Amino acid sequence: MVGTVQGEDTPVMSTQVDVRRPSWSPEHDIAARSFWEKPFLERDDTFRFFRENHPVSYHRAYESTLLPPDEDTPGFWAITKWEDCRRVSRDAETFISGKGILMEDMPEVVTLATTSFLAMDGVDHRQVRGIVSQAFTPRNVRKIDDWINGLATELVDEIIERGEGDIVDLYAKQLPGRIFAFFFGVDAGSDDMYTIMEAAERMLAWDDPNCALGRDALTTFAEEADRIQSIAMARADHYREHPAENLVSWVVNAKFEDRTLDDWEIAAFFSLLASAANDTTRHSIGHMFRLFDENPDQLALLREDMDGRIDTAVEEVLRYASPVQHFRRTAAKDVVVNGQEIKAGDKCVLWYCSGNFDEDQFDEPRRFDIQRKPNRHMAFGAGGPHFCIGSALGRQMIKASMQEVYTRMPDLHLTAPPEFQINNFIHGIHAAQAAWTPSKRSA
Ligand code: HEM
What we know:
The protein has 16 helices and 14 strands. It is α+β, with helices and mostly antiparallel strands. It is globular. It has helices spanning 40-53, 82-90, 108-115, 122-133, 138-159, 167-172, 174-184, 191-203, 209-212, 217-241, 247-253, 263-294, 296-304, 306-321, 352-355, 391-408; strands at residues 2-4, 11-13, 56-59, 76-79, 95-96, 164-166, 326-331, 335-337, 340-342, 347-351, 413-414, 419-420, 429-431, 433-435. Residues 1-17 have low confidence and may be disordered. Bound molecules: protoporphyrin IX containing FE. Residues 89, 117-118, 129, 136, 272-273, 276-277, 280-281, 284, 323-324, 327, 352, 379-381, 384, 386-390, 393-394 line the site of protoporphyrin IX containing FE.
């Protein structure tokens, strides 16, 4: 049997070491909370070690603060290669989502109440996704492109005179916040809009002291989800009576295969949406600021030919940022992945952040290269039925921001290192102080 011995991390042939209970050295212990306090590229040193030596490796249960593990809590398989992530993600009959979607466990009732069709399989998944998916087709998103571009212009108008400030707070949070305020049917700039934005950030960063604010992780998650759901449900009741042109109204009144969503499903969908859509996009835009700050040569290239390079630049921001670092599946039957036997019931964590830096797929993966082509990143997932429903919308928000900010605030630069969230799920930027030359709105 192949296993590892404490401190060595080299595979040893042993009859004593159980491959399902290996001990990785602290450097390679992705199940330790402290691992997630390290910088992203340092973490990728560890993922690279696994990609090269143990592409499918078993780990003890994560030191979760959501549902702290005991001795018997099963660990998880880490799938670290691009090719294996794709294979697992596309085989949704063997690798299911209904048993949990994160590497750490959470009480089932919380999963059910907050994750909607992200944590469903088969017909249930198809139906609920079918009800909401038409709103997010590329064709529909193209219709709202102009609206998104207009919002980006408005935001730059609002902040350009300041010349400095936390660009995450001033811009990266605001654009998706305003867009999702519209989707929720609440007024842009209203208290409800800020509540949704704040709750979405805190809900997905239960391990981060800035978001937990002294609460335990589960309370943080549940309370913040509840804040989002209360607003969505109040709006849902209203739009049932008074249909209007926004997503809440549309989802409340929509039918797919003769089925409508019940109140629970609506509440779960909107907490999924607030987090899956709002938070991911906001962090992608935050990473865009820090990546161009770290790579001024790439910013110069972009500015030299904005129209010609912006689309590949958006893809490279997404790859490099890997805003969603993992999603989990559970094996529904015994299966072999990349030579490794996996038993029915085992958790399999797809490390998209590792797949996006896989040397077998990306030439010099640590080079931020806005002209990278092809760029088959897995920022939106690795294919299969759960592939991100909002990828076109997410891309457009990053593109509009890139275009507007780097045309009108070309010397924007960070004045202090960005503050990253401590988070094994979302690769988040909490704050980033920046400065730029103030100037009047261009005519
Ligand atoms: C840059 C921004 C975004 C990133 C990086 C991102 C990433 C992801 C990822 C990795 C998944 C899971 C894929 C899988 O495991 O197969 C996902 C699913 C999902 N995303 Fe996004 N997303 C983004 C923006 C959005 C937006 C704007 C929306 C909605 C408007 C959205 C809605 C969803 C939904 C509803 C799912 C669940 C799909 C399913 O289970 O069938 N996302 N997203």
